[in-house]
């Protein structure tokens, strides 16, 4: 069972897949993910630093090469239960800015080939700021590239772009970006990747996707535009009203969900308990950043 990204918009059939940082557009059978950063482990081992927020703390460290395996495991679990015909990576498929690392070359090729073997008919990379020197590999494997993508959802127009560059979105109801790696520190100091839903006006929203790469848990969401990199977020005037959506696997989070349920009631908090892929998840959505801040300081 999936959960609508915007339950309040009945005609918008975009879903969050429990236990993953992915979005699913059911009308077009499109799976969207962002910020895989393939090749990150090689970059770290070679002392290459590419963080836009200063030092990451990983340069010169030998990390287990787990990202690709974990991303494939997530993908395979989703593809077993969800009908997907197209996969879109919303930027930063690879990690290095200034070169193509050997690990990047191998893992990008292997990913696209794996998706083909799983019956995916189309692979599209929406270019991010890390996606230099990868065009030929994507095209050689039958994929395509774009700077942005428009997906119609009934009468609602959805715009997808990585978020490091600004493209006009006035004609769209929903804009979806990556780039920021949003997260929330809560429940005993754990850091959760989150979907950040920022209202732009009465009927328009900006959605920031969490990073798919396991080594990129993200940057704490904030009400201050200065804490963000994307021009889309910096221009958003209602950051303090951001809705924050995270997921917890119930096997390890039963006490957390019980605690949250006792502390706050709707409309400040929404909890959906869903089964997906043989596991139960709680999807917790805070009504705004203030609610998230109160609850996460309470614990």
Gist of the model:
The protein has 299 residues and is an alpha/beta fold. The chain has 7 helices and 18 strands. The chain is 24% helix and 27% strand.
In words, what does this structure look like?
The protein is α/β, with parallel strands linked by helices and 299 residues long. The strands form three sheets. The protein has an eight-stranded mixed beta sheet with strand order 8-9-10-14-13-16-18-17. Strands 1-2-3-4-5-6-7 form a seven-stranded mixed beta sheet. It has seven helices and 18 strands. Helix 4 (135-140) links the parallel strand 6 (122-126) and strand 7. The chain has one domain (3-239): Purple Acid Phosphatase, chain A, domain 2 (4-Layer Sandwich).
Structural class: alpha/beta
The main β sheet shows up as: 8 strands, mixed
Q: Over the alpha carbons, how many angstroms does the gyration radius reach?
A: 18 Å
> In angstroms, what separates the terminal alpha carbons?
29 Å
Shape field: globular
Defining traits:
299 residues, alpha/beta, 8-stranded mixed β-sheet, 7-stranded mixed β-sheet, 18 strands
Write the layout of secondary structure elements.
Blueprint: E1 3-4, E2 14-16, E3 23-25, E4 30-33, H1 40-45, H2 67-81, E5 86-90, H3 102-117, E6 122-126, H4 135-140, E7 144-146, E8 149-153, E9 156-160, E10 174-177, E11 182-186, E12 190-193, E13 195-199, E14 205-208, E15 219-220, H5 231-235, E16 243-249, H6 250-263, E17 269-276, E18 279-286, H7 289-298
């Amino acid at each position: 069972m999936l959960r609508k990204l915007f339950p309040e918009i009945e005609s918008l059939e975009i879903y969050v897949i429990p236990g993953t940082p992915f979005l699913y557009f059911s009308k077009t059978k499109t799976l969207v993910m962002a910020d895989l950063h393939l090749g990150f482990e090689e970059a770290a081992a070679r002392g290459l630093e590419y963080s836009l927020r200063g030092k990451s703390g990983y340069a010169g460290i030998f990390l287990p090469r787990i990202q690709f395996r974990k991303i494939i495991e997530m993908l395979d679990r989703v593809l077993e239960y969800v009908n997907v015909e197209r996969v879109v990576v919303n930027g930063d498929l690879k990690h290095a800015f200034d070169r193509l690392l050997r690990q990047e070359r191998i893992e990008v090729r292997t990913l696209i080939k794996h998706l083909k073997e799983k019956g995916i008919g189309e692979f599209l990379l929406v270019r991010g700021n890390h996606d230099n020197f990868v065009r030929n590999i994507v095209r050689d494997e039958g994929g395509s590239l774009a700077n942005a993508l428009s997906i119609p959802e009934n009468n609602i127009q959805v715009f997808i772009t990585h978020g490091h560059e600004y493209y006009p979105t006035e004609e769209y109801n929903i804009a979806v970006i990556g780039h920021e790696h949003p997260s929330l520190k809560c429940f005993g100091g754990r850091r959760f990747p989150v979907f950040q839903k920022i209202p732009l006006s009465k009927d328009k929203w900006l959605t920031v996707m969490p990073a798919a790469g396991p080594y990129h848990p993200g940057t704490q969401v904030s009400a201050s535009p200065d804490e963000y990199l994307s021009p889309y977020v910096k221009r958003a005037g209602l950051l303090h009203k951001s809705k924050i959506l995270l997921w917890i696997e119930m096997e390890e989070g039963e006490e957390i969900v019980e605690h949250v349920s006792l502390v706050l009631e709707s409309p400040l908090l929404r909890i959906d308990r869903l089964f997906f892929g043989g596991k139960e998840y709680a999807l917790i959505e805070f009504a705004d950043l203030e609610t998230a801040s109160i609850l996460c300081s309470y614990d």
